[in-house]
Amino acid sequence: MGERVHQEDEDKLKGTVKQKEKDRTVTGSVTANAGTNLNTSSLAITHTEQDPFEITGGGTRETQIGLLYGYDSTTGKWLALGIDPDSLSSALNVYLKGQAGNITVAQDAKDRTVTNAVAANLKAEVTQASAARTITSGDITVAPSGDMARKAYYDRNAEAIVEYASGNQAAGQTTVMWTYTVPSDHIANHTLFYDDMAEDIVTGGRLVIAYHHVSIDAGSSYSIFSKFSLVDTKNAPIQQTIVSPFTLFATDKVKGTISNSDTVSHGFDIAAILAEFDA
Amino acid sequence: MKRVKVKLIGKGTIEDPWRVDLPTWVIDGDPDYVKKECYVRVRDDETKEVQGKTVLHQERIREKYRENWSEFNASDVEILE
């Protein structure tokens, strides 16, 4: 996230913090003179509601508004509050959803496109509870929330799952050839189902069926793909490949079943391909 | 994947097909419907070695599929070899 920089210019930073609660507004202010450490100019906010609060602040120069960080003493985390690049000259509006506790707000000025450059080796000190502390890039963490952007699924420990069984299904038998259950804290993208019934003539009136069942939330399973094999010519395999993308969640499962009501065995292949990754 | 020989459950009908009572597995080869046995492949992390023999990792399966398998007992699936 980059180093925090220290303001040494002559301009004054002044901001107003408003905390919105259900039926009242709490207003505070923070003022930092140019050249002073931010730990003398941060504002401690105590709030008891898990409500977003608005921070409006501004300075007289664009260099003064950059990235805002809030320290939540309840979680011990520094939270990046974001920036409003279109309001650099007069006001910065950011929103933070935090837990009950003390939030210390500090401001970091960055070397942006400005008229007076800030020296690159400057650091800022911000207040953390009662002790001043120098923040480096490694100290800053961003608390995850439902609104945070996430990595694509293939970058979340993705693993290809191939469920494949082949053999000869005996006469008069129905067997689940494979089952895949989505583990806890995981998601699976189902992409392909394939089955192949080979050889032998199916006796008239008999059925050889490949089922692909899906069970959602460990409930009843539903056959979403099934094929009746009516091979009336020897050595004439019937094959189907279905590309069917859908998403499964923890406890959902898929299974491949071969049912042979014929009086002879039948060769088969039955498979599914999924991508499993962290939820 | 680890290969183990297990007992099948079920009756071989559409309503009650032959199967194995595990969350994830794949049949390996043709089952023996007379003895009600088959080889299955199970995820490596869901098995462990005990005295040179591959057994189901009960604790791992309970934790990995905790929503519905938190009370899984490895002894419920008879490992034959």
Beta fraction of chain A: over 45%
Mean residue pLDDT of chain A: 57
Overall number of strands of chain B: 5
Overall shape of chain A: elongated
Radius of gyration of chain B: 13 Å
Characterize the main sheet of chain B.
3 strands, antiparallel
For the terminal residues of chain B, how far apart are their CA atoms? Answer: 15 Å
Fraction of residues in H or I helices of chain A: under 10%
Provide the helix percentage of chain B. 10-25%
Please state how the strands of the largest beta sheet of chain B are arranged side by side. Answer: 1-3-2
Tell me what portion of residues of chain B adopts beta-strand conformation.
Answer: 25-35%
Chain pair sharing the greatest interface: A-B, 25 and 26 residues
| Broad shape of chain B | globular
Q: How would you describe this structure to a colleague?
A:
The complex is a heterodimer of chains A (279) and B (81). Chain A is built from no helices and 18 strands. Chain A has 279 residues and is an all-beta fold. Chain A is elongated, with a radius of gyration of 31 Å. The two termini of chain A are 26 Å apart. With 81 residues, chain B is of the alpha+beta class. In chain B, 14% of the residues lie in helices and 28% in strands. Chain B has a three-stranded antiparallel β-sheet with strand order 1-3-2, with no helix packed on it. The longest helix of chain B has 7 residues, at 58-64. Chain B is globular and about 30 Å long. The model of chain B has no long low-confidence stretch (mean pLDDT 91). Strand 12 (173-181) of chain A pairs antiparallel with strand 2 of chain B.
